[in-house]
């Protein structure tokens, strides 16, 4: 299957993408991984991306599209893939359609993870990270530490990242609504969108997603 995963920040796309890719035996292709791999390997696209990033500029669509094209052409993606973070706007969606047409394939589904905006803010703004670079993450509501402000594992100080502050989260949501959300209507016009609630336990969301994708599994190109 060839799937695009969409949803607002805090919808749990990364978590669900990993589970779904494993269950469907297809590679999980995330924009973040693409950038890290290309930059660490010193590819031409990676060097271009790094130039823009160092200058504090947005990486042009053509660079991101080029990275995605190269990754989708790898042998492990021949029978399908799950795209997470790409396409991010209408231009990238149109480019993806072109890439798939060239290869004689098509998308099977666009899985839309739906989460109320207040829940997104609650999920992200409640996160607390350990300063000791241990990677331990807590949440003031869902997974609170035993002692407020202290990591249960290593005793390090817990803090809230700038990106997780409520005002920043709401700005990220505005960008999502403006730039990325329109691709949902773009794909609805192609009959590809399946929408599920991303509320509840991770396993429950995965079950809903697998059931929704099961209806799309019989489409041409699966």
UniProtKB/TrEMBL annotation:
Residues 1-214 form the Guanylate kinase-like domain. It catalyses: AMP + ATP = 2 ADP. Keywords: ATP-binding, Cytoplasm, Kinase, Nucleotide biosynthesis, Nucleotide-binding, Transferase. AMP binds at residues 31, 36, 57-59, 85-88, 92, 161, 172. InterPro entries: Adenyl_kin_sub, Adenylat/UMP-CMP_kin, Adenylat_kinase_CS, Adenylate_kinase_lid-dom, Guanylate_kin-like_dom, P-loop_NTPase. Residues 30-59 are annotated as: NMP. Catalyzes the reversible transfer of the terminal phosphate group between ATP and AMP. Plays an important role in cellular energy homeostasis and in adenine nucleotide metabolism. Consists of three domains, a large central CORE domain and two small peripheral domains, NMPbind and LID, which undergo movements during catalysis. The LID domain closes over the site of phosphoryl transfer upon ATP binding. Assembling and dissambling the active center during each catalytic cycle provides an effective means to prevent ATP hydrolysis. NCBIfam families: adk, PRK00279.1-2, PRK00279.1-3, PRK14527.1. This is Adenylate kinase. It comes from Streptomyces radiopugnans. The gene is adk.
């Amino acid at each position: 299957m060839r799937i695009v995963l969409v949803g607002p920040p805090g919808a749990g796309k990364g978590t669900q993408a990993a589970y779904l890719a494993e269950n469907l035996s297809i590679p999980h292709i995330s924009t973040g991984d693409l950038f890290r791999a290309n930059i660490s390997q010193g590819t031409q696209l990676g060097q271009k991306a790094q130039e823009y990033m160092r200058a504090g500029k947005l990486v042009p669509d053509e660079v991101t599209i080029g990275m995605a094209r190269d990754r989708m052409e790898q042998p492990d993606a021949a029978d399908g893939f799950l795209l997470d973070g790409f396409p991010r706007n209408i231009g990238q969606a149109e480019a993806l359609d072109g890439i798939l047409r060239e290869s004689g394939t098509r998308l099977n589904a666009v899985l839309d993870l739906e989460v109320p905006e207040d829940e997104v803010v609650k999920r992200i703004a409640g996160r607390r990270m350990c300063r000791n670079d241990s990677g331990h993450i807590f949440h003031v509501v869902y997974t609170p530490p035993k002692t407020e402000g202290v990591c249960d594992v290593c005793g390090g100080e817990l803090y809230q990242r700038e990106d997780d502050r409520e005002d920043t989260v709401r700005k990220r949501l505005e960008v999502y609504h403006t730039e990325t959300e329109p691709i949902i209507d773009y794909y609805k016009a192609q009959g590809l969108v399946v929408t599920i609630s991303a509320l509840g336990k991770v396993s429950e969301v995965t079950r809903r997603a697998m059931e929704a994708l099961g209806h799309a599994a019989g489409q041409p190109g699966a």
